Sequence to fold (224 residues):
Amino acid sequence: ETGVTQSPTHLIKTRGQQVTLRCSSQSGHNTVSWYQQALGQGPQFIFQYYREEENGRGNFPPRFSGLQFPNYSSELNVNALELDDSALYLCASSFPGQFYTFGSGTRLTVV
Amino acid sequence: DQQVKQNSPSLSVQEGRISILNCDYTNSMFDYFLWYKKYPAEGPTFLISISSIKDKNEDGRFTVFLNKSAKHLSLHIVPSQPGDSAVYFCAASHTGANSKLTFGKGITLSVRP
Fold:
């Protein structure tokens, strides 16, 4: 049973650019969520997808958007990057009603 | 507005002794609470959870206690082992284990051999 895998593990972007982060859910999991973890903080909920539909959103601006594909993999897109977007981005997947399994995250640095 | 608070940033415990990690919350709508453990360069790993209809849940060396009137929960690890050294996050939700989770800032536990 494979876990949640995220790519890339690290990347550096320039302010104003756009970035796409990718996540492969654990086998069979149809719910995926994305979290942002800034340095010294706990993870903050960005949004959740269930069967390709957005199913809940946290307090993040519209330049944070996502997709879930039929195979339940997912993307997080961030437009017009700002310095404060520098963080660890965590993807988590689950079955409905079950606890999340998290990936190891993508470390994004915006310069 | 921190709805889940872990006020102690770190805790150091001798191997074999009890570790008690505390967590407070402000949102009375929360009805499900979880603890996640995180090692460096890894994602958080689910440890133990408790529903608001219970006041205690035990799994091996790990026990979580919930005091709803005080809006307080604690994680007890006994006996503590060096491999337990990690960051522990308290998280809460109001619609179940895999809905939006609100996390605390985490506590760094160090277990000294």
Summary: Chain A touches chain B through 27 residues (CB under 8 Å). DSSP finds no helices and eleven strands in chain A. The longest strand of chain A covers residues 87-94.
